[in-house]
Amino acid sequence: MPVAAIEAAPALLQEVRRTVDARLGAGRYGLPPLLDELGQTLARMLPGPGDARLSPEEQQQARASFAGMVDTLEDVLEALHRSGRAGNVMGWGER
């Protein structure tokens, strides 16, 4: 992963949090723990200077876990989007 992408990853997660908060408001119930877990896994995968590095096996497990969490987040957001459209809730799918 290029250095710029590594440095942007935490900022990207914060942008996801802001977008979820802005678009879902109170409807985001249950998402903060998933976003917290994504952040913790990301921090383990991209340790800072002086932090312990994961072994190759741990890196592989962390990548698989992260990918699974992103898939779950995508599914949850899609379900919320569909339920919002079904209830004629404006804003989530608007661009």
Explain what you see:
- With 95 residues, the chain is mainly α.
- It has one domain (2-90).
- Helix content is 72%, strand content 0%.
- The chain has three helices and no strands.
- It has helices spanning 3-24, 31-45, 56-86.
- The radius of gyration is 16 Å and the shape is elongated.
Number of helices: 3
Tell me the domain tally: 1
Radius of gyration: 16 Å
Mean pLDDT: 78
Structural class: mainly alpha
Concise overview:
This protein has 95 residues and is mainly α. The protein has one domain.
Detail the topology: elements first, then pairings.
Blueprint: H1 3-24, H2 31-45, H3 56-86
Helix pairs in contact: 1-2, 2-3
Q: What descriptors fit this protein?
A:
mainly alpha; 95 residues
